[in-house]
Amino acid sequence: MHLASLLIFAAALFVAAGSPGPSIAALVARVISKGFRDVFPFLLAMWIGEGIWLSLAVFGLAVVAQTFHYAFVVVKWAGVAYLAYLAFKMWTAPVEAKEGGMPREDSPLKLFFAGMAVTLGNPKIMMFYLALLPTMIDLASVTVAGWVELTLTMALVLAVIDLAWVLAASQARRLLNSKRAMKVANRVSATTMAGAAAAIAARS
Fold first, then answer.
1. What pTM did the predictor assign?
2. pLDDT, block means (10 residues), the chain with 204 residues
3. Within-domain flag for 29
4. Is 24 among the domain residues?
5. Does residue 20 sit within a domain?
6. Looking at the 3D structure of the chain, how many domains does it have?
7. H/E/C letters for each residue in the chain?
């Protein structure tokens, strides 16, 4: 692909993915509540989910996505339910101020599922790849090599954005040393996570 096309795609994705939305809200809430150590399955699933949407757009499978619309609706509501469950767990989580104590980690598989559901069920992401992307790039002329270049560009942009959010949330978490501060952080994280679930549920 032409470098100019990749740069246009990267710039548009940077703006779209970098703006706070349900996915970023869920990611930040998770890191503030539990730390960054077990968030990577969630991140990996988010990146794979965006890769799926990109592939559907590049290979002209938008019709397939529409055909299996109800399957994506099921995924969307499963994601909403799981985010709501995580919000409940954050809200009711006991506060431990033991030196060096680490919170109990959730199953990597559960976190992967949550990240995948958030991404596949997010209409904002779907519209970017299936509606906006074709206006920026002539997808009919994209070869397999071009798809690889787009995918690598996507992965790089998302890694920069998401890891920056993880770092910022992790730094904020370090400032929370007291039980009261951790309780407030858990409640704020729970509210943010619930807000992410509500935002996904409200979008059609």
1. 0.67
2. 86 80 76 78 91 86 56 64 68 52 60 83 77 79 89 94 86 63 60 65 61
3. no
4. no
5. no
6. 1
7. CCHHHHHHHHHHHHHHHHCCCHHHHHHHHHHHHHCCCCCHHHHHHHHHHHHHHHHHHHCCCHHHHHHCHHHHHHHHHHHHHHHHHHHHHHHHCCCCCCCCCCCCCCCHHHHHHHHHHHHHCCHHHHHHHHHHHHHHCCHHHCCHHHHHHHHHHHHHHHHHHHHHHHHHHHHHHHCCCCHHHHHHHHHHHHHHHHHHHHHHHHCC
